[in-house]
Amino acid sequence: MLRLAAASLAGTAIEFYDFFVYGTAAALVLGPLFFPTFSPVAATLAAFGTFGVGFVARPLGSILFGHFGDRRGRRPVLVASLLLTGASTVAVGCVPSYGSIGVAAPVLLLVLRFLQGLGLGGEWGGAVLLTAEHAPAGRRGLWSSFPQIGPAVGFLLANGVMLALSAALTDAQFAQWGWRVPFWVAGALALGGLWLRSSLVESPRFLEIDDHARVPLAEVAREHWRLVLLTAGALSVGYAIFYAVTTWSLAYGTERLGVGRTEMLACIMAAVVVKGSLTPLVALLSDRYGRRPLCLLGCTAAALWMFPMVALLATDAPLLMFLGFLGALLAFVTMFAVLGAYLPELYEPRVRCTGAAVGYNLGGVLGGALTPIVATALAEHSGRVPWGVGAYLTGVALFSLGCFALLPETRPVEVAVVEPVAG
Fold first, then answer.
1. Is the pTM of the predicted complex or chain greater than 0.85?
2. 362: closest CA among 233, 243, 223, 245?
3. CB-neighbour burial class of residue 39 (10 A; exposed 0-12, middle 13-18, buried 19+)
4. N or C: which end of the chain has fewer CB atoms below 10 A?
């Protein structure tokens, strides 16, 4: 289990590194380089638009890879998705700017971002299911949390490289070629991930299935459509929080508040470190107290914290910004640490790879794709404190809270066996 969990964590971290490095670049440099004819705000919105394309592609990737995951096994999905995401990420680092090839530059960016999202849409389902279906029932929450640490590790890797380059290079050097280096690094990381995953064995639960779904998506749409919509709605708040903190606030802090790029990245990364470190602990609590109660608790905390978060961000004081980000990510991890066990348990094994992944990635469209765009537009018409962003995030949290309230508990319950009394 430890080897399997480590391989799943490493692979997920690499794929999310690829996905997150684009988000950081979109917040910092892609607008002026690929949309130079736009105003600064419009260029940022356009860059976040290409960022959102990856989220739109993720449900399509979950359908494509989920089909093969339910028909052919979880393991092949992990290899194919990693190859696709790694190759498209390296290619992003090679796209010439608008000044070199004109409108073809943003078009290529859109296509490659779409391919990134397609690969990541298949990654999560394969990695989580392979771990969850190997794990013992009483510790499924704990072991399934390892792939959930991957996004935090991937984010820290992506932004660590960006932070190092930002500190070492001048603004001109960073804009000219420095931003491309993290995308090229993705190639080496993908090769390492493929090596780690080469020794993984197929899920025993998949091998036990006698009657595989012929068209998993059709079965999910026919029999589990309500569950897919509820899980997508429930998870939208997590995506909204994470990308408000890691993507929108980075652009807002550097462009609107005038905070240094290095300072903003450091505040965000410190909060992500704490969030990633607490993931296994929260998941362990879900093995004892249940998945649903923790999700409801995290959602409630998110609804209460969004206004304080934007107020702390507007102070532009590093410590206060860090505390605002930390509170938001603690609410986030209370929900998302348990998803590696919760989502697979909600779906029957024969369509689990498709159903869980589609629900997970549709939540990304609702929360992750829209949030940087909506928040940027709302902040443009706000004063120094973007209260409109706080109201939007609070509304998303309340919507997700209602969806979580309609989902069942899934934690396996041990049934005590009472021996009959003689005589």
1. no
2. 233
3. exposed
4. C
Residue with tokens 């290095």: 262
Tell the burial category of 383 from Cβ atoms under 10 Å away from its Cβ (0-12, 13-18, 19+): exposed
> Rg for the chain (alpha carbons), in Å?
21
Residue-wise pLDDT for 307-337, tens only, equals 999 999 999 999 999 999 999 999 999 999 9
Select from 138, 152, 328 the least CA-distant residue to 244. Answer: 328
One-letter amino acid identity for 317? Answer: A
Q: Say if CB 53 and CB 118 are below 8 A apart.
A: no
Cβ-contact 244, 393 below 8 angstroms: yes
**Tokens 């939540």 — which residue?**
363
For residue 333, what pLDDT is reported?
Answer: 95
Q: CB within 8 A of 139, min separation 6: which ones?
A: 287
Which residue in this structure is represented by tokens 């976040």? 48
319-342 burial by CB neighbour count: b if 16+ within 10 A, else e? Answer: eebbbbbbbbbbbbbbbbbbbbbb
Structure letter (DSSP) for residue 169: S
DSSP letters for 54-80: HHHHHHHHHHHHHHHHHHT-HHHHHHH
